[in-house]
Amino acid sequence: MITLAIALGAWALMAVAIAHRSLIVLAADNSAVVERLGRYEMSLRAGLHFVVPFFDRTTRISNTRRVELARQPYFFRDIVRIELEPALAFEVFDVLRAVYGIADVDQAISGLAIARTSNAIGRVSSTASPFELLAIGEQVKDELNELALPWGLKVTAYSLGRVERELESHESTAPSVGGSTTPVAISSD
What we know:
This protein has 189 residues and is of the alpha+beta class. It has helices spanning 2-22, 95-100, 105-121, 130-148; strands at residues 23-26, 30-36, 39-44, 47-50, 56-62, 64-68, 72-75, 80-84, 87-92, 153-169, 181-188. The protein is built from 4 helices and 11 strands, in the order αβββββββββαααββ. The strands form 3 sheets. Strands 6, 7, 8, 9, 10 and 11 form a 6-stranded antiparallel sheet that branches. Strands 3-2-5 form a 3-stranded antiparallel sheet.
């Protein structure tokens, strides 16, 4: 009798484990890619889904993300330093391309944002107004959208963050004005 109870308990435990591995619940802002024996099988959206246990592997991804970049120094056209803390928000509209198109989505979009911001800041003078910096944010956002399209991403917001301008020029012939900073907050949604 005891061996029958142990056997039934083991079968019940195995049935619960199989049921747990075969059910996937995805929240409203998540998606997943299902691979069966290492090959792409299907993409899943929010909801309750059944998969084949032990044969299917799922990779979950959040559809909306926000990435805050570390403080970076940038230089205007006239070699005046500015420090920015850019941040961006993006959506994954094609989970298949986001999973298979790039190894690390956050790192790739961050690298692009830093490079495009540096390029855009380098084209304007240090006397640029906050409105011109806002326009730079919009320009960078548009460029990021174009470049991230093959990865199944859409940038929804880009912000230069807190801007600190250094009044001292970094040219060796320029006289020192004193290294004071002027903080300005710039955001583009």
